[in-house]
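Predict the 3D structure for this chain.
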Amino acid sequence: MATTQTVAVFQVHARRTAAAAKALLGETFAGVLCVDRYGAYTWVTERGLCWSHLLRDFQAMAERHGSGWYGQRLVRASQRVLAHWKAWDQGDIDRETMGAHIAVERRGIVKCLERAAAAAHAAPKTRRVARDLLGLQEAMWRFTTEPDLAPTNNLAERMLSVMASLKAQDRAPFRFVVDIIDAHNTGRPAPSLLPVHPSQG
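Done. Predicted structure below.
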């Protein structure tokens, strides 16, 4: 699935691979994505990591024998990162203030990941995840340099193509269904899910 603030598209594919992602997004996709760490998206140069998924990774560290100390600190720091972004998104703080707060959290998170990668001997999986994330710093913090990129892909995970797109555009689902049926019965083109620009009427 792929979503924007106004359009959601779901596609069924036999496998969850890079080929499937390219079939959905297009071979020449040049936009910015918010994704999890699954390998199917590594071909996208401009991508950000979803912090909801990172938070789950950190929570798993917190609950794993041998890495609770690291995981607990990473969970709390991640929650603060998301809170700072939300405060900016809701207009409670400006972007400069958000950036300053997140910069503090970033230093702490990187330091904690470095310690986990080097010292969590009793938790090999935690060490692997920490090392992976240290190599993905640009993607982890992409949302701080891309104003239109959210830090999570929660929107994609909760949307259904037609109904969610209509809701995002404040369009009535019932009216849309009626228009589809009417278009079919009269031989006219089906209505589009794409948002209509005010200048287009």
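DSSP finds nine helices and four strands in the chain.
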